[in-house]
Amino acid sequence: MLYSSEFSVNPSFQSYSGVINTPNAQVIQEGHASLHINNQFDNFLLNYDYSKIHSSQEDYIIGFGLFSFIEVQGRVSEADSHHRDLSANIKIQLPYHYKYLPDIAIGVQDLGGAANYYDNQYIVIDKEIGFLRTSLGYGNSDLKTKKRMDGLFGSIELKATAWLYLMAENDSVENHIAFRLEMPKYWNKNFNIRTTLAYNIKSHNSSLGFTLDIPLYHNSSRVSSQKEQNIFKSNNEILMQEKNTISTKKLYSKVNNTIDAKVNLQARLSSFGFENIKIGKYKKNLYIEVENSIFDSTDLDAIGYILGLVSFSNLKYEHITLTLLKNNLKTISITTNINKFKEYILNPSLENKLLLKNNLQFNRIIENSKILYGAKSNSSFFIPRVELSLGLTTAVATEFGVLDYILALRTNMYMNIYDGLVLSAMYESPFSHSNDFEKGKVYYNETKMQSRLVNAMLHQTFHYQNLFNTVSIGKYKTDYFGILNQFNYTTISGKHAFKFRYAYFQNNRISNAAVKESYLTSYRYNYSPLDLYTEVKYGKFWYGDIGTEIQLKRFFGETSISFYYKNTNIQYLNKKEEEQIAGIQVSFPFTTRKLLKANYIQLKGKKDWNYSIASTIYKDDGTNSLNSNFGVTPISDLELTTEYLNRDRLSSEYILNHLDRLREVYLTYSK
Q1: Which of 17, 83, 180, 642 could potentially form a cystine with 196 if both were Cys, beta carbons 3.0 to 4.6 Å apart?
Q2: What angle do CA 126, 127, 132 make, to 5 degrees?
């Protein structure tokens, strides 16, 4: 029996969503990543001369659903004795959907590459009819050699069952047939695995592809029904239950114990792991100052948990003002009606959500001399925080290999010693590398191959309303000593930010080495409905080149995907060298959501581990060799926006757009 239901979206073997080698009009689901590998040899490398014996080929493809109608994919391809290539592709689906009309998409292969092996532009339409999906498109290539999709192409997919697809296509040069096996969606909602076996009818060769599809975010709207039931029960039924069981007595005590309620609340926050806790009152308002050192991925978790805890603690206050601290500096204050937050926890209806949104108020500093605070508990001072992470340096799809790398263990130590004053050090220990990083090889760097103290700096941060400034002084990048200053002005809404960064360092190892001086200014705009950040940066970079960097970044939960373009130049004697670079960066927490409480020391991972890959997009000589010394921004171990502004997300608009996260964290961690 043929199976008629929603079709899945699958990467083709050519780094765009499609069938086998041709695209359809679909794109990767928004907020999802697709990882794909296949072993299909591209016959265009032999100009479709099937009498020649082809070599092996491997394709490694990663794609992202950046928006509901845009996907981007990157591809590393290697065919022995033919080519090794890194390319980028983009597909845009027209953002309309009508029941009786087909979907339409346009796309570009090998976007902006200097060495274009897969250059192509295309338009394609597709339509689902029951258990069939058909597509028809037209492509154009600027390559002089014979190329697939240089003309009309088309495909047909048949969904036989929830896990089996049958496919056939013509790519304007060759004909392929294939079947695809995939994991039914009802098996697992967190990821999907697919396998495609394809057969080339002209060359009589078969090829195999594997795909892993994963979401980039944690779905905060999915909360255990048992958790919700427990909260509802404890609030509405506890007074009606018998009190002769241990569990009932605990719940009864949780809701109704009003003796020393403020002291009990502070003890619970302290026991949970929060630091620098102060609780005060003024009239019918409750004030809490607290430092989040327990939820490492995002401060939203701390906000949600504390507001939820207060809402269900039966305190006799109408409003709460929660002030978050970082290194004992105030970063943001949030005021809300306690009952409105409680009602949202119990019933996240649209009405309750809007009532809470309209009630929440935000500020950077709350000053009121009439607030009566109790004693502070759980000081953050002089507690070492040890952060372990992987250091990864790579060279991808170069003339020397598909992947060259150095892996190192990075150990960062941080210690808060006064208000806004932090001592940090970073030690790096390489433990694995590829052959091209060996001594005498092309990427050998004596310094990088040694275990060493990379950075040791003292950071002092000052804060006044929306202004933050961090001054860092000390050892930097192993051989340098100097100063790095970061200035940031971010509106409370988070919509606008102005930044300035200045660095001045001298080389301690080479006496006559030039001074490193960098000055960079930038403006950042946030479109909050999509958690989309656009930043334009201009100035002098670390290696002396002057120019511009443009970055587009989108957050999916705690994962961010960034695309950047750099255009910088530097003057060498009478010669001016220019470089244009485009790249992608992925950043996500390399740590647990909740850390262990810090007693004498605290171990954790990195909250914003990142990896980036870039390529030259244009050179006059037609090559695409990448100079990694262009467009480098000096970064410290304590980045202001990461440390004090929750990776640039500690703002009213971001919090208001993620109220479901506040609810979910309380339901997850409440007891």
Answers
A1: 180
A2: 115
User: Do residues 206 and 233 both lie within one domain?
Assistant: no
**Structural domain that includes position 338:** 225-379+656-669
**First-residue to last-residue Cα distance in the chain:** 49
What is the number of other CB atoms lying within 10 angstroms of the CB of residue 271?
A: 10
CA–CA dist 544, 515 (Å, integer): 10
Q: Is pLDDT above 70 for 363?
A: yes
> Do both 164 and 244 map to the same domain?
no
pLDDT of residue 252: 41
Distance of CA 599 to the CA centre of its chain: 30
Sign of CA dihedral 173, 175, 178, 184: positive
Angle between helices 299-311 and 261-272 (to 10 degrees): 150
Residue-wise pLDDT for 275-315, tens only, equals 999 999 998 999 999 999 999 999 999 999 999 999 998 88
- β-pair partners for 521: 500, 538
3-class secondary structure, 513 = coil
Which phi and psi (to 5°) does residue 199 adopt? Answer: -135, 125
- 262 within domain boundaries: yes
- CA–CA distance, 577 with 616 (Å, rounded to integer): 13
pLDDT score for 114:
57
Is residue 401 included in any domain, yes or no? no
**Nearest-angstrom CA–CA distance, 103 and 74:** 23
Measured at the alpha carbon of residue 135, what is the angle toward residues 129 and 139, in degrees to the nearest 5? 165
| Structural domain count, the chain | 3
Closest CA to 503 of 481, 522, 488, 524: 481
Which of 195, 215, 235 terminates a domain? The answer is 215
Any idea what DSSP says for residue 436?
A: G
Confirm whether 406 is domain-assigned: no
Same domain, 357 and 477: no
Q: Which residues of 29-63 are buried (b: 16+ CB within 10 A; e: fewer)?
A: bbbbbbebbbebbbbbbbebeeeeebeebebbbbb
Q: Domain end: 184, 215, 246, which one?
A: 215
Lookup: tokens for 26: 């679909």
Question: Does 155 lie in the same domain as 301?
Answer: no
As a whole number of angstroms, the distance between CA 587 and CA 607 comes to 9
Cα gap 344→339, rounded to integer Å: 9
**Residue 126 backbone phi and psi in degrees, to 5:** -145, 160
167 and 46 within one domain = yes
CA 235 to chain centre: 37
Order across the sheet with 285-291: list the strands.
361-363, 329-337, 319-326, 285-291, 275-282, 372-373
| pLDDT, tens digit (0-9, with 9 covering 90-100), for 85-103 | 888 999 999 988 888 899 9
Written as one string, the DSSP assignment of 19-85 is: SSSSB-S--PPTTEEEEEEE----GGGGTT-TTSPP--EEEEEEEEEEETTEEEEEEEEEETTTEEE
Which two structure tokens, joined as six digits, stand for 4? 């008629």
pLDDT band per the 50, 70, 90 thresholds, residue 625: low
Q: Are strands 480-490 and 151-159 parallel, antiparallel or unpaired?
A: unpaired
Let me know if residue 257 belongs to a domain. Answer: yes
Alpha helices in 334-412 (DSSP H): 338-346, 350-359
The CA-atom distances, in angstroms, between 2 and each of 130, 158, 183, 652 are 9, 8, 17, 50
Residues 211 and 229 in one domain: no
State how far Cα 442 lies from the chain centre.
Answer: 32
Taking only Cα atoms into account, the Rg of the chain, rounded to an integer number of angstroms, comes to 28
C-alpha distances (whole Å) from 345 to each of 266, 501, 662 are 22, 42, 9
If asked whether residues 203 and 230 sit together in one domain, one would say: no
Considering the domain architecture, whether residues 348 and 478 belong to the same structural domain is answered as: no
